Each structure stands twice: as structure tokens, then as C-alpha cells.
């Protein structure tokens, strides 16, 4: 186990270095000048030079990257270009609770709906239940998230118009608070987040379970006279979970930043929304910190999926 964790730690450091360097190079070579964009029409040469020096943009590229990297090791990503005097780490920390809450509950609902629906569809393969459930899943999978979100907002407006309930169209309320008012803000974005994941997991669970049910050891278990419920859940479903574990771990990695369009459309002040705003403002320190956070979450998700392998199948050893 120790050897496995050491290997994963080395891999994490390598991934973080690669992601940070690629993000820095893209930002460094991006067209336009963030300081000129910040100053707008007030192009005072003295102020322009002072701001470039303040943010270290007058240094050689390798010195800028080293300053970013050494600061990142201390969780110090410098200051925002767009919001002067605001540390980037504070901006990211402010957005994490909102993104984490949206991603966590969306992920939980995704698994609670997607996997059981996939099991039902596999057990009723090529029957009306399977056809109906997979058609719904395909529609949810085919429609882009932002289209579903926009239709949901239109539906809320019509709902408010005809009922007079005044269900909120956007915003999030207080993070990790579940008063009736907060729940009104959160239910729709969470369900939309879960819909796309539901479509993937229901179809993927159906496919893996059908493949497992065709295996020889399942036929042998049936030939021995075991009850169908035991055959499905003790022999087939447990083994069908193994390929699902990888996707679950990767999906967990996107809990923090897997909701770019939802946060933007519903005006949720999460990490994804902060990152998109930073791209529009050419706020490179915020962009770099956001991308590094996403990469860290994906690596942690991979680690979780590796650890889950041993839970699903004890024969798998971590080396």
C-alpha cells in the first residue's frame, strides 16, 4: 500500500508540473495584453509599466513560471489582474463550497438514479421498459447541458407565471444550507447536473451488466439452480461494477469543476464560474489556479477509483 501511494504521489507531482507548465505557456503566449485590457482607454505609460512590474510581467518567462510554481507550492497564486489587491487563493476558496455542493449532490443523485436504471434496463433487455429508459437516457445524453439549463429556466418562468409561486430562476443561496428558500435555489441546478451523469451511468451499467450476464460463470451459477436474484446481484452485478469504478473515480474528479455551463447560466459563484470569468477578463493567475485545481481533483479521483477496485474485487492488489 505504501509503495502504491508513493507511486501515485510521484504521478500527481508529474501531472501537476505538466498541467501548470502547459497552462502557463498558453497564458503567456495568448494574444492581447492583460494589463492593457485592465487599463482600458487610460493608457498611462507610467501606470502601465508599474502594473507590469507589480505583477512580475516584465520578467523573463522562465522567471515568471518559477515564481508561479514556487508560489503554488505554498498555495499562493498571486493576485488577480481583474480584481486588484485580491489574492487568487481567496477567490478560489470562496468558490469551492458552491461548486463542491453542486457537484457532490449531483454526483450522488447520478449514482442513485443511473446505476439502478441501468440494472433494470439490462434485466428487461429489448423489452418496453428497456427501450423507454434508454430512450430517455439517450435524449438526456444528446442534449447539451446548457440547452437543458436554458429550457429549465424557461420552464421555471412559465411555472411562476401560472402558479404565482415565484420559484427563483437563478442564484444559489447559502452554501451547504438547506432551508426551504435555499432548496428552491438548489434543486433545479442539481437535477440538471445529475441528468447528464444519469444518462451516461444508466447506459454504461446496462452495457457492462449485459456483457457480464453472458459470461460462462453466470451460466454455471444458473445451471446449479441458484435463484436469479443471487445470480444477478452476487455474481453478475459485482463484476459489472469493476469497469464502472474507473468512470466513478473520474467523475468524482470533476465534482469541483464539472459544471461550467450550469454555474454560468444559474449565476452560481463557484470555481467554474470564476474560471470562465477569468478567461473573459484574461486574468491569467486565476485561470492557472483554476486549471491546477481541476487537475488535482482528477488525479485524486483516479486514486479513489484505484482504491475502490480492492473493495469491489479483493483479488486486485495495489502494488
UniProtKB/TrEMBL annotation:
Keyword Cell membrane listed: yes
Matches recorded under CDD domains: TM_PBP2
Assigned GO CC terms: plasma membrane
Cross-referenced SUPFAM superfamilies: MetI-like
Domain ABC transmembrane type-1 positions: 96-305
TM regions (residue ranges): 9-28, 102-123, 135-159, 183-201, 240-266, 286-309
Alphabetized UniProt keyword annotations: Cell membrane, Membrane, Transmembrane, Transmembrane helix, Transport
One Pfam family recorded for the sequence: BPD_transp_1_N
Biological processes, Gene Ontology terms: transmembrane transport
The keyword Transport appears for this protein: yes
Domain of life of the native organism: Bacteria
Subcellular location(s) per record: Cell membrane
Membrane topology designation: Multi-pass membrane protein
PANTHER family named among the record's database cross-references: DIPEPTIDE TRANSPORT SYSTEM PERMEASE PROTEIN DPPB-RELATED
Family assignment from sequence similarity: Belongs to the binding-protein-dependent transport system permease family.
Protein name stated in the entry: Glutathione ABC transporter permease
Organism, as annotated: Ktedonospora formicarum
Gene designation: oppB_2
Amino acid at each position: 500500500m505504501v509503495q502504491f501511494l508513493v507511486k501515485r504521489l510521484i504521478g500527481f507531482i508529474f501531472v501537476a508540473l505538466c498541467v501548470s507548465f502547459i497552462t502557463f505557456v498558453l497564458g503567456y503566449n495568448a494574444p492581447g495584453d492583460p494589463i492593457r485590457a485592465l487599463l482600458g482607454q487610460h493608457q498611462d505609460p507610467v501606470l502601465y509599466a508599474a502594473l507590469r512590474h507589480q505583477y512580475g510581467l516584465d520578467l523573463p518567462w522562465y522567471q515568471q513560471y518559477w515564481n508561479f510554481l514556487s508560489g503554488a507550492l505554498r498555495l499562493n497564486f498571486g493576485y488577480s489582474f481583474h480584481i486588484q489587491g485580491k489574492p487568487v487563493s481567496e477567490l478560489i476558496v470562496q468558490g469551492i463550497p458552491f461548486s463542491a455542493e453542486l457537484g457532490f449532490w449531483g454526483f450522488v443523485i447520478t449514482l442513485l438514479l443511473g446505476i439502478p436504471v441501468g440494472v433494470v434496463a439490462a434485466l428487461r433487455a429489448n423489452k418496453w421498459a428497456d427501450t423507454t429508459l434508454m430512450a430517455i437516457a439517450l435524449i438526456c445524453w444528446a442534449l447539451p447541458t446548457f440547452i437543458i439549463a436554458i429550457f429549465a429556466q424557461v420552464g421555471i418562468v412559465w411555472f411562476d407565471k401560472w402558479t404565482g409561486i415565484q420559484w427563483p430562476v437563478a442564484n444559489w443561496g447559502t452554501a451547504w444550507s438547506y432551508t426551504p428558500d435555499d432548496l428552491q435555489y438548489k434543486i433545479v441546478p442539481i437535477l440538471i447536473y445529475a441528468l447528464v451523469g444519469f444518462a451516461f451511468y444508466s447506459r454504461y451499467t446496462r452495457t457492462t451488466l449485459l456483457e457480464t450476464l453472458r459470461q460462462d460463470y453466470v451460466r454455471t451459477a444458473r445451471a446449479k439452480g441458484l435463484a436469479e436474484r443471487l445470480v444477478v446481484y452476487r455474481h453478475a452485478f459485482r463484476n459489472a461494477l469493476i469497469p464502472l469504478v474507473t468512470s466513478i473515480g473520474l467523475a468524482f474528479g470533476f465534482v469541483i469543476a464539472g459544471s461550467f455551463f450550469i454555474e454560468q447560466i444559474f449565476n452560481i459563484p463557484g470555481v467554474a464560474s470564476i474560471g470562465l470569468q477569468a478567461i473573459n477578463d484574461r486574468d491569467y493567475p486565476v485561470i492557472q489556479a483554476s486549471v491546477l485545481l481541476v487537475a488535482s481533483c482528477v488525479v485524486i479521483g483516479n486514486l479513489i477509483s484505484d482504491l475502490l477496485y480492492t473493495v469491489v474485487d479483493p483479488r486486485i492488489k495495489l502494488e
